[in-house]
Amino acid sequence: MDNRPQTREGIANTLSEAAYGFHNRLMMIPPYRWISAALAYSGISARALLILPPYLWLLLFFLAPFIIVFKISFAEYAISQPPYTALFELIDDVYLQIRLNLENYQLLFQDDLYWRAYLNSVKIAGISTFLALLVGYPLALAMVRAPRQWRLALLMLVILPFWTSFLIRVYAWIGILKKEGLLNLLLLNMGVIDQPLTILNTDIAVYIGIIYSYLPFMVLPLYASLEKMDESLLEAAADLGSRPVKAFWQITFPLSLPGVAAGCFLVFIPAIGEFVIPDLLGGSGTLMIGKTLWAEFFSNRDWPLSSAVAVVLLLLLIIPIVVFQKMQEKNRAL
Predict the structure, then answer these.
(1) Among 58, 37, 60, residue whose Cα is nearest residue 49
(2) In this structure, are residues 76 and 106 in contact, taking their beta carbons and an 8 Å threshold?
(3) Which of 11, 81, 151, 310 has CA 20 to 30 A from 44's CA?
(4) Residue 19: exposed, middle, or buried by beta-carbon count in 10 A (0-12, 13-18, 19+)?
């Protein structure tokens, strides 16, 4: 068997051959064969046929719901079912009237409740992401430096919390962080504190819950990035007299930046719209956009305003992702 490292072109050819073989196996299924023949007759290639299902999935379950929410955000609140007015109305069976209500978006910038919720969500998500990076990077580095026979077990331990319900894990932190909880009981018995600490229903509890819940999303990309690093680079740096700390900042950390960026995005994006953790651990004093969105949708039943809140939140998340992708494309071009 040839164990030589493959070039990028060789890997691409191997993937192409695998996709072509998968396509040939699917041709044995009559519906696929009929659709393939119809698309081939219309000039669409087999490669386009293979990538069509993922795009259809995104179109059906992402773009279509977003368009519906975007449409509702321009409607007006109404006491009806559903609780908003129609955007398009046919008058005298001839004229099509389009009614766009911009008041929902104006209210988001005029009422300090919403922009404070946005800013506080960005602050909590940003701090939680930074703390998750501080915890996750040494953990991922230790997993990479561990003996190879232990790495799979360590990966399983990182993924293990996902085997339990997310809601149950958050409720468990209530029993740990409350005044009569396990943490205060441990600190009192150790003599560290004289009075129970108030941790539950504060921002600190929210930080703890977010870091605990989303830490695997930080560790796994970092582990994948660090595992691919060539260890001979560190050996060469040591031979040239570089100290371990200096070698880390000049070699290890720059090479792991793709994993750092991926982990930060995977933690920051869900954390900024989190609802369960702020509601259960933060209490009524924690203002985040996820809780505000839930209150507008279910308590006030103001679907147009809650849709506008969701659209602005999605735009706030998409813009940094697009900017990051553009920067990555420029770096690849250089």
Answers:
(1) 37
(2) no
(3) 11
(4) middle
CA end-to-end distance (rounded Å), the chain: 36
User: How many CB atoms are located within 10 Å of the residue 309 CB?
Assistant: 26
pLDDT one-digit tens code per residue, 67-79: 999 999 998 888 8
Same domain flag for 140 and 289: yes
Q: How many residues does the chain have?
A: 334
CA–CA separation, 216 and 160 (whole Å): 9
Distance CA 149, CA 143 (A): 11
The encoded tokens of residue 306 equal 């809650």
Tokens at 113, concatenated:
């409740």
Q: How many domains does the chain have?
A: 2
| pLDDT score at 129 | 95
What is the spatial distance between Cα 324 and Cα 257, in angstroms, rounded to a whole number? 12
At residue 89, φ and ψ (nearest 5 deg) are -140, 130
Are 113 and 300 in contact by the 8 Å Cβ rule? The answer is: no
Indicate which CATH number applies to the domain containing 282.
Answer: 1.10.3720.10
- H/E stretch holding 67 reads helix 64-72
pLDDT at residue 271, as a whole number: 93
Binned at pLDDT 50, 70 and 90, residue 132 comes out as: very high
For 81-112, what is each residue's pLDDT tens digit? 888 888 877 777 777 778 888 888 988 888 88
Residue 83 falls inside a structural domain: no
* Residues 178 and 294 occupy one common structural domain: yes
Q: What is the pTM of this model?
A: 0.79
Same domain, 25 and 173: no
Tokens 């990077």 — which residue?
137
Model pLDDT, residue 44: 63
Secondary structure element (H or E) that encloses residue 10, with its range: helix 8-26
Token pair in block for residue 155: 């990966």
Which residues span the domain enclosing 47? 1-67
